[in-house]
Structure to design on (864 residues):
């Protein structure tokens, strides 16, 4: 039985209890959210030692880090380093997007060593294996794809991205739209190419019940991928994107009917003034299923800094309803992220999520900021560094920039406003 | 005659023409904006070789970089390096906030070598000089302060931050408010301490006409400082802050009456959901005077990453009406920025400004993104790197992460969505 079916049966599972405790929210609210699908707890029954995490309405905004090999960088050890970095930086989930080397081995190592939920995009492995199996990877069959999905579910993957909404109807709308970047989702692009080549419907759509059945068996959360997500500002919120979202909304309900947990994935590249509308639309069309957004990045012109462009978009998205942010690293649009890129990406997304949690009224969010404010007021550096979202970096920078034992910092030195206020107004102001 | 007086007399100055050309906007609109005070062109008559820049309504969002010595780091050469870095990264203005070493010499070198407008906060120098001159720097006199203002105006400073709104009334409201961080503006904190110590009104408020007269003589733009800006989320948008803003709004009109250009400075630390309200309020209370914001940063917990927290806030602020973003570097709250911090700060602010310009409809803003989108679609790396907001960094990262001559990138390799679409759908999709 999935977490959702158990919740509907009124059974408060250990996972729900743990989520409730972590969030500081009543277990009843978690149970109700999971029962209704507004909260997902991705938790494959085969994933041993998982510390379950809730994603959805009323909860802290979560952050996912993508790792995984690529054809040019097949070294699993490097990806394990990135896993440790992502966890250390505070990622709530990790996706293994491996496409190079021994994909099964890499996934196994990640799942075995990962206390947070693990996601994958099974079509990647299906494509790579088809390349070895056939003359041309386009010869992949629907059974090849479902075979990989089943194997990954059995291996303990907690959530899988499945581009079920890339239908012939959606592709036709895309064709009419005349986008600049067409399809930028790897899975979406391959699926669309495959469908047009074979002149058949998307098997993930046509055989959706088969997919739901696999998910049900292992309690895999379906993350309905947005194959048509915009790849540039010019393509945002167009008919193709919204048509796919409508279909995803219908598929959400079909999964829920069977007791399968679902999330919906969202854009992408979106101008500032379209982000909130995208969130409202998803929440309505998908009946408040948890929304998992990639970015959104708010300008196309900043390769090397897309952790920042996506922190801007992610903060507004989370504030407007997104529940789960997929990190974007400085390497986006340029190459595979390094360890440092992973760290920068996780922290930037966590900043975005936390900034949103403060104004969404997530329990305890603002308390953290107020504690930091008091530490600053008191020039209590030890407290400031311990409270920092990245204590390691903050401590290193404090050390680099200031002589040992300095009371203020080298920005203002003795002219420190906190110190001046302390000296001249100290007794005249109320203390907190 | 100031740019404003000339505009009112209907004289289209070379500076206005140059601004119009740079912005791609009709010179008449610039002239009208300057005449009404909605656009400022900070341009001290003594600043030789300045390439004038317009700040305000309808124009591209501008970015300022703060540099300058501190008591611990008095080396002018290091600040000159930062000046070059800031200019190279695309800063539209630079503020010299020096408080260490030979302040006059540092300012002179910066002005002599700076083609963008230069700002200062004269009270910093007045404080530092009082420290040498008196037993206690609190003995500074109003004439000491005005003496520094006059000297800096004669030296060619284009705009000065003056905390004219820190009045006894405002301090009384602050006292009643009970903030966590009281005053975090260096100038504001010192002024408030000085006023309370001497039990007299702020000379920058009481002798505002004297200030306006100096500004008029040299066409120094007054940047009315927000001494009461919130230093943490908890203190944002409180009575003290808004009381000061009301007073600044009155002072804006008094400067305009004399033909003196004015900008108004704004917060600070502001939660996501209060940023737009702050911008609307300033625009109303200050009759659309250009708004110059420091950040705002949207969470207090990220020292080491405040270029990101402020890029989030800055993007929303600029979208909601802010005209001029003061950068915040990763060193904020930790120490004096290094050269690399300066670069990171300028680029982060430029990203925020550009993301906003796209949705504010600033002429030409979106074209840049669309060009990048086309370059991506065509896998034209040379065009992508040249179009990048930081071409140097993007090029270095592309080189580091990818083997020479690679057509795609190491993120997806041969499974590149752009390539897949090109191969399978290439002829079936409309080309842009």
């Amino acid at each position: 039985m999935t977490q959702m079916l158990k919740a509907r049966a009124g059974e408060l599972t250990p996972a729900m209890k743990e989520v409730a405790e972590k969030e500081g929210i009543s277990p009843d609210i978690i149970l109700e959210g999971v029962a209704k699908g507004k909260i997902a707890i991705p938790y494959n029954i085969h994933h041993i030692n998982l510390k379950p995490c809730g994603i959805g309405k009323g909860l802290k905004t979560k952050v996912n880090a993508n790792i995984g090999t690529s054809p040019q960088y097949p070294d699993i050890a490097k990806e394990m380093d990135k896993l440790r970095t992502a966890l250390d930086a505070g990622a709530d989930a990790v996706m293994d997007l491996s496409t190079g080397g021994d994909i099964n081995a890499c996934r196994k190592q990640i799942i075995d060593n990962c206390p947070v939920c693990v996601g994958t995009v099974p079509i990647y492995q299906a494509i790579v294996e088809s390349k070895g199996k056939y003359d041309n990877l386009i010869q992949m069959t629907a059974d090849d794809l479902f075979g990989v999905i089943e194997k990954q579910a059995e291996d303990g993957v907690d959530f899988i991205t499945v581009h079920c909404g890339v239908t012939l109807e959606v592709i036709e709308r895309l064709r009419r739209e005349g986008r600049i970047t067409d399809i930028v989702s790897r899975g979406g692009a391959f699926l669309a190419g495959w469908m047009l080549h074979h002149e058949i419907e998307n098997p993930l759509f046509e055989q959706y019940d088969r997919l739901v059945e696999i998910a049900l068996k292992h309690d895999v959360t379906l993350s309905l991928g947005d194959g048509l997500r915009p790849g540039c500002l010019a393509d945002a919120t167009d008919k193709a994107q919204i048509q796919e979202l409508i279909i995803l909304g219908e598929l959400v309900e079909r999964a829920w009917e069977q007791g399968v947990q679902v999330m919906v994935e969202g854009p992408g590249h979106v101008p500032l003034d379209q982000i909130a509308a995208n969130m409202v639309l998803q929440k309505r069309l998908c009946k408040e299923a948890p929304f998992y957004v990639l970015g959104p990045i708010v300008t196309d012109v900043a390769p090397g800094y897309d952790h920042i462009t996506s922190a801007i978009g992610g903060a507004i998205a989370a504030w407007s309803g997104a529940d789960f942010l997929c990190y974007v690293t400085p390497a986006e649009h340029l190459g595979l992220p390094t360890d440092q890129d992973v760290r920068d990406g996780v922290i930037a997304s966590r900043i975005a999520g936390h900034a949103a949690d403060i104004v969404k009224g997530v329990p305890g969010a603002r308390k953290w900021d107020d504690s930091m404010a008091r530490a600053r007021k008191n020039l209590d550096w030890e407290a400031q560094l311990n409270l920092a979202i990245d204590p390691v970096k903050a401590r290193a920078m404090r050390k680099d920039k200031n002589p040992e034992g300095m009371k203020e910092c080298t920005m203002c030195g003795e002219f420190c406003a906190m110190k001046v206020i302390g000296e001249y107004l100290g007794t005249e102001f109320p203390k907190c």
